[in-house]
Amino acid sequence: MNDSLRESLSYFGLYMKMFSVKKTVKPEYISFGEHKDQYFLYYEPTNVISDKIFVWVHGGGWNAGSPKFFDFVGQAMAGYGYRFISI
């Protein structure tokens, strides 16, 4: 099996894990500019275990994707008790 096929087949398991994360908090939409795409999502966990904040920069070269695509990461981190920002 070539590497690209193996990689493509591995995504199914990843997607299953991504979409199985329970949504326990509602992220706060925070705008920081005049354009509608200048925002970040802040996740405040119910039970905070640390004063640290994780910041996730999703990439996309300012032309693809959004912080909403990575809600599963914010939900998981909030579920573990960490504050989280997706930008």
Provide an overview of this structure.
This protein has 87 residues and is an alpha+beta fold. 30% of the residues lie in helices and 20% in strands. It has helices at 3-19, 71-79; strands spanning 28-31, 39-43, 53-56, 83-86. A four-stranded mixed sheet has the order 1-2-4-3. The longest helix has 17 residues, at 3-19. The termini are far apart.
Low-confidence stretches are none
- List the total number of helices: 2
What proportion of the residues form beta strands (DSSP E)? 15-25%
Count of β-strands: 4
The shape, in one word, is globular
Distance between the termini: 37 Å
Taking all Cα atoms into account, the compactness measure Rg is: 15 Å
The chain-level mean pLDDT equals 86
Q: Quaternary state, please?
A: single chain
Structural class: alpha+beta
What kind of sheet is the major sheet?
Answer: 4 strands, mixed
Order of helices and strands: HEEEHE
Helix content: 25-40%
Main sheet strand line-up: 1-2-4-3
Task: Write a concise synopsis of the structure shown.
Helix content is 30%, strand content 20%.
Which secondary structure elements does this structure contain, and how are they paired or packed?
Layout: H1 3-19, E1 28-31, E2 39-43, E3 53-56, H2 71-79, E4 83-86
Parallel strand pairs: 3-4
Antiparallel strand pairs: 1-2, 2-4
